[in-house]
User: Fold this.
Amino acid sequence: MSARRGLGARWRRRRPLRTRLAVAAAAAVALVAVGVCAAAFFVIRFKLYQQLDQNLAQSATLTVQQHRDEGPGVMAGECRFLGAPACSQIVPADSADDPAKPYLLPVSGATREVAAGRRAPYYASFTLPGGRPGRMYTTTFGDGEAVQVALRADIAERGVRQAATLLAAVGGAGVLLSAVGGYWVSRTGLAPITRLTATAERIAATRDARHRIELPPGREGDDGRQDEVTRLAATFNTMLAELEESVAARRRLVADASHELRTPLTALRTNAELLAKADRLTAAQRERAAGALGRQLREVTGLVNDLIELAREEEPQPLLEEVRLAPLAAHAVDAARGHWPAVPFTLQVAPEAADLSVPGVPARLSRLLTNLLDNAAKFSPPGAPVELSLTLRELTVRDHGPGIAEEDLPHVFDRFYRAEKARALPGSGLGLAMARQIAHAHGAELTAERAPGGGALFRLALPTS
Assistant:
């Protein structure tokens, strides 16, 4: 048994899913068809013989009524003809009481037991003297006697054979149709999976994530009436769209980073080559070149660090802790005052938010606030304040500069995006992109809008516990 199971398991492993599904569907339908035909055959056979047995019981009752006073012997012997009445005979319990004339129907020990009252009446099939099939009923006739009646069973036998032939043909046709149906089910049912496999193989070969699986018409966006395979294909298409966007974003990041690094690296090389000829420069020229080289090194270092930070998709969970926002905001404002001495910074904390804390990474949240304050200070006119406000629900940073143009609002958080007014200002265009990424990593939402009365307003919606 284990060897047969192992052979079957090896056969299943070596066959494709389509073949296994077709065989399983065909076998299930064929089993049902064969089972229905077999059940129908036994029902027909039972009904034919039941009708014959009812005729025999009626004939036995008639014989008892007509020959009540007669002794053992053959009463009627016409059952050798197909359309003749039933032949009948009376059999005593003791063989010593048998008549001299032989019986027409077979007499057995069971017949004697019925006559003696030791056995219930019964039906039996036998062969008539002419070789014809017959059906016999044995029941009690009186005290110590039994009556046997018989009819030819040709019609019942012929009906059984015809039913068997017809049902065998129907069963064979059912098996054939089940094979065709199983193939059709496997082909149509696995068509989306076949397309999915082909698409995955094409993407693996070409590394092009723009390919999609064709879905049945009218199914897009109707998740409630999609079957499982169609939902799988739709989910795979969604995954491909995300993969395509991820690949495109990676290419844009590499291209933008390369573009942003080209200028400072060129300047670094120029100043480094200039300092290599320091013996030909005056002290003032050497000092200016060294200062420019230091500034450019800091700029490149900051740009590289920003790129590394942006490459992180999520915050490390083990570093999370409860961070109080009011002291963190005060520290960020103090640091901004030292970095932008010409810009006045104000901090307003609502009384109910004095002890507000959120789970997060303190250094990352501090970087978020620093980026927002630096961005606001960069666009603030001399003497115009930068306002930071904290409430239970949000943290806002507002400046009183030129504000954000309508065409720039959808792009202020894009990597390396710099509005036309900001292209002459220092920076790489990564600060706001990094701020939004940090906000998302902490379950918050960072948005930008035009402040009433002028300037830009950045709103950090805090996560609700």
The chain has ten helices and twelve strands. The longest helix spans residues 17-66. Residues 406 and 443 are 27 Å apart (CA to CA).
